[in-house]
Each structure stands twice: as C-alpha cells, then as structure tokens.
Amino acid sequence: MSFSSMALSQKLISLLSELGYLAPTPIQAQAIPVILAGKDIMAGAQTGTGKTAAFALPILQKLSDNLMTGSEAGDAVHPKPVQALILTPTRELALQVYQSFGKYGKDSGLDTAIVYGGVSIDAQADTLKAGVDILVATPGRLLDHLRRGSLTLKQLSFLVFDEADRMLDMGFKDEIDAILRKVPAQRQTLLFSATFAPSVFALSKRLLREPELIEVDKRNTVAAKVEQLVYAVDADRKSELICHLAKSKQWQQVLIFCRKKVGADQLAAKMSQSGIKAQAFHGDLSQAAREKVLQQFKLGDIQVLVATDVAARGLDVEELKVVVNYELPFIAEDYIHRIGRTGRAGNAGQAITLYCEDDALLLEEIEALLDARLPQQWLPGFEPDLTKLAPVARKNSKAAQRQRAKRRASGGKKPGARR
Ligand code: AMP
C-alpha cells in the first residue's frame, strides 16, 4: 500500500513525501480509505503508530474539497463555524495534534485552533469568534467556551476522540456527555483508543453509527520493538539504582515515571544532587513552565524528565530510547501508555521497571494484561535483600506461579482485575 494508491490529493501526497513519509503506517493504511469513504471508525492504535495523520489527512482532504465560505455556512454570531473537532484528554496531546494539523494542513487554506485549560480564556475566545475550521480541544475548556458562546458546533462534520480510554479514565464522561448534546446527529465520528476497556465500548455504542472496527495491533499489546526489563531492587535503594543506571548507561534523554507529584519532585531533586540534569514534570507546573521544560528536554538540555502519568500523556519526543517505571502504575493499562513513549514509529526502545516486593500484585496484573511474563533480573551490587522479603508476598512462590498458569489456561483475567 502506498499513499498514492489512496484517494488523497496530489498536494497531500507531495507533502508527505517532503516529510519523508515513504509509506502509510498500518493504522493509516486501514483508516484513511475508510474515513475518506465517509464511515465512522473505532480504531485501536497505540501512541506512536502514526494515528494522528490517520485521521488528520482524510479530514484535511475532505474539508479542503468542500471549503465552506462564511456566507454558506455561518450566521451573524458565528460567521465561520467549526467543521472538525478533535477532543484529547490532555493539553500536551492537544498541542501535538494541533501541530500535526499545522504540518499536514499548511497549504490547505483551513484555519486550525487549539483550546485547553490552564491559560487565559479570552485570547482563545477571540480566535474562535474570528472563525476556525478545525478545533483541537480538551473537554473542560471546550465546554467553557461553548457556555460562553465563543463557538458553535452546529455545523460540525467530523468529531474525533483521540485517546478515548484516557479521557474516560480522567473522569471526562460528564463533559463528553455535555459536548455531545451540542453536536449534530449527522456527522462522521472517529474514535481512537490505545486500549479497549468496557467503558470505551460503552461510549462507542452511543457515539458511532455502524463503525468499522480497525485494530492494527492485538489489543493491549506494546510495540514489538520495545525491550522490557524488570530490575528487582529494595525499595529504599531505587533512587541509588536509577542514578547508577543513568550514569553507567550514559542516558541522554530518559523519561521516568513516578506515581505522585511529590515523588517526582523528590526523585528529580535527588538525581540533580548526584549531578544528573533532571526535572520534575507534573500538573503543578504552569503551562508555560511545562512547555519550557519539555523544550529543554527535547533539545537535550535536560537529561531526565521525572513525570507523573497525567502529565506525560501525549508527550511526543522523537527517538525517546528509554522509559523507566520508577514505580509501577496502579492501573495496568497505564503501563502500556507509559512504555508507548518509546519504540515509536517502529524505532527500538527500552522500558525499564524498578521492581520491589510491594509491586508484586501490580506486576502480576500487568503480566495478565499483556499475557506475557516479565522476568525479573538483579543488577550486581543492587541485589534485593532476601532476608527482608515476607515469604507469602513472594511473587514467584510456587503458589503464585500455579495461580498464574491456571488463569492463563482458562484464558481469563483475575476476577476483579482492574481494567
Ligand atoms: P503519532 O502516533 O500520530 O503520535 O505519530 C508518531 C510519529 O510518527 C510522529 O512523529 C509522526 O510524525 C510520525 N509518522 C506518522 N506517519 C508516518 C509515516 N507514514 N511515515 C513515517 N513517520 C510517520
């Protein structure tokens, strides 16, 4: 399959070749023709698979084929109504999607805007009132604008949910419901989700009409080229180990995940003290501070970003080679999201987990989700102190192994396992 065999315009095909996109990625090959044919889709695609272009290209193509003039589409209050709305769970992902539309749509004649919270609403409202064709938004701030009347969605042709699973995990269900009440029934809806939890299926039933189901990867899998390593270590030696790894492996650009903001702050401070250029990255930073840190990280001025899950969602750093789980996430799916920050667009990556005894159940849930064992290893000098381990909690006890084998054989998940 090539881009030129799809019904894309010559202009877009030339642009893709300028960008060095030699061939469509699997999600693009499957989704673009279906979207161009006007169908709804429900697509399971991990981050880094090229999913943004999979929806951006056909939307740009279809909208520029039917460029609406103000007099055709608008009214006195909203002279140029929004035609495509892309909802994302976080500001970072919104920014990336917005930049992608800028990149792919630079010669389209279409106006794209972005709205997200944490920054002044007035400048955004002015942009919206002037009229935009394509809007990328986080749900909360979009609702604020709808309530203020800065825009109308009455002429919407395309509604895209990017990372729908995360939007629901982050508690945006009420906002989504309120937004859905403002969009026309006649529209094309595209739902993208890294994982398919039952809540995503429930949402899809309400949103989509006879959707085409597109799955480019087995559900709940990680990119094939990501090597997953689990180092067992005592909890009180994790920070020492991470500093050792950063120095001995000469990491230049690493993303480390902590569960809490305070933990991220503490680890970043500890690493800085030992001479590693590290910065915390979480929701307590202002938007301007986040953008600055991200820029420094991308430029290589910061070696290590110590992030929480919410902040790191949507982070797109090209060629990120290593991701570290300093602490495992409480929700198994987050492990997939985290390590999806590496191994993007077919590149090789490494996902390292620092595992301690307390993580036994969390690791077990991740293994059940992946349907794969993640064998633990010890690093010389950092071997766990076995005399401290409570025998019943040992993950590799015969009983635990038997339980796992039984569960796999029945093809089922542990009852009550978090999804
Ligand atoms: P995404 O999954 O949309 O975040 O895209 C991941 C990365 O893949 C981005 O840096 C894109 O610029 C890049 N990309 C998207 N489509 C292609 C393609 N067909 N060929 C090469 N790179 C691509």
Question: Can you describe what's shown?
Answer:
This protein is α/β, with parallel strands linked by helices and 419 residues long. The protein folds into two domains: 3-215, P-loop containing nucleotide triphosphate hydrolases (Rossmann fold, 3-Layer(aba) Sandwich); 226-409, Rossmann fold. 41% of the residues lie in helices and 15% in strands. The chain has 17 helices and 14 strands. The protein has helices at 10-18, 26-36, 51-65, 70-73, 91-104, 121-130, 139-148, 164-169, 173-180, 198-207, 238-248, 261-273, 287-299, 309-312, 332-339, 360-370, 398-410; strands at 41-44, 84-87, 112-115, 134-137, 158-161, 188-193, 212-215, 226-232, 254-257, 278-281, 304-307, 322-325, 349-355, 376-377. The strands form two sheets. The chain has a seven-stranded parallel sheet with strand order 3-4-2-5-6-1-7, with helices on both faces. A seven-stranded parallel sheet has the order 10-11-9-12-13-8-14, sandwiched between helices. Helix 6 (121-130) links the parallel strand 3 (112-115) and strand 4. It is globular, with a radius of gyration of 23 Å. Mean pLDDT is 85; it is low at 391-395 and 411-419. The site of adenosine monophosphate has 15 residues, from helix 3.
